[in-house]
């Protein structure tokens, strides 16, 4: 089983991923978490990624695709994958299809967590991560709209997209996701 958690920064992807991976016994792959770990380890990848992350820009497709390929190869014990924060561009979505194809896998559902901009900004400011300052947040939302939103259409066309209202309580959102997949 392959589930993609989709949504803007601050929509609650990480929180729902933690619940879903337990419930469905899926290998959680969060590109944001993996990148932060690489930055922490001061690896070559981390050093290349950091400047993009600090600016709220996307890390290059090549780096991300290579990174996720490696993670998928080394993590195929569980029931499947729960992808969180990936794909974020059409190129990444196409590369993902290819990777899954090669492993006789396919996406089962793309869960889109829908939250209004004002709520997102409030949530991100409360979270207070390194890159959660007013300036970077504004840019990340802009980048999301320009580069990431088009994949929603891509997955809608493929009949994979499920829209879930993301500003209910954590439990309510989780219940609605489970009901719909
Ligand atoms: P996130 O934790 O998902 O909000 O990701 C934090 C930062 O990591 C983003 O602002 C990007 O700079 C970078 N990042 C995470 N996932 C991706 C991706 N799939 N493609 C490009 N950049 C990414």
Output the keywords.
5 strands, Rossmann fold, binds adenosine monophosphate, 13% strand, 181 residues, 9 helices
Structure description:
With 181 residues, this protein is of the alpha/beta class. It has one domain (2-180): P-loop containing nucleotide triphosphate hydrolases (Rossmann fold, 3-Layer(aba) Sandwich). Helices cover 59% and strands 13% of the residues. The protein is built from nine helices and five strands. A five-stranded parallel sheet has the order 2-3-1-4-5, sandwiched between helices. The site of adenosine monophosphate has 16 residues, from helix 2 and helix 3.
Termini separation: 11 Å
Question: How many distinct folded domains?
Answer: 1
CATH architecture: 3-Layer(aba) Sandwich
The small molecules bound here are: adenosine monophosphate
- Identify the strand order in the major beta sheet: 2-3-1-4-5
Structural class label? alpha/beta
- The CATH class designation is Alpha Beta
Short description:
This protein is an alpha/beta fold. It has helices at 13-24, 31-40, 44-55, 61-74, 90-102, 117-127, 134-148, 150-157, 170-180, and strands spanning 2-6, 27-30, 81-84, 109-114, 161-165.
